[in-house]
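In the lab's daily routine, each protein ends up as an entry in a very long ledger. A line of letters takes care of the sequence, but it says nothing directly about the fold. The fold becomes a row of whole numbers, each drawn from a learned catalogue of backbone shapes. The protein below has been through that process, and both of its lines are reproduced in full:
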Amino acid sequence: MTSTYDGATFPRSAVFLDRDGTLIEEVGYLDRPERVQLYPWAGDAIRALNRAGIRLVMVTNQSGIARGFFDEHMVQRIHGRIAELLARGGAHIDAYYYCPHHPDGKVAAYARACDCRKPGRALVDRAIAEFGIDPAQSFAVGDRWFDVALARTVGAKGVLVRTGYGAMEALTPTAHLVPDAVTDNLAGAASWILSSLENTRSR
């Protein structure tokens, strides 16, 4: 994917990016870095957004921590692996945020309801404070309806991708929850986002 927006900048815009099934292949509970597989188009898509000056913020639910399948250190190692793979293609994500909680968790420290588990907004609020992001100029992208719900919660636009669980999700619409776009994959989402921002700027 080639960006036509080189040199453009959208300093207050961000993409709140889901991880599994959106950026990397969905493999269930990802418990070691060697299992990380970027989608073939992921690096180009992220690089195009980087070139446009858009913040990339990963926002991911990692209930495997609460369930005892892996610990926070492993999640950080996995994110380090993702960063390494993206860097090989000249792309980067600005911040990696994750929720370790789940009400049905087996690890007491994480077995609770919280406001950081998507579609809760705590992780996005953290990014807004850290980077000066305007959610009205931003996007949430993922393969689950709760990614679209997150967009609605924070006042961003929501994009559902058909990778991961997305094709199945698209076949089972959720009442009163309509995405702003449905795309085949992250490359399509990046193109739609760039066009949307450019159209907004030219008004």
In short: The chain has one domain: 14-198. Strands lie at 14-17, 55-61, 95-99, 139-142, 157-161, 181-183. The domain at 14-198 is CATH 3.40.50.1000 (Rossmann fold).
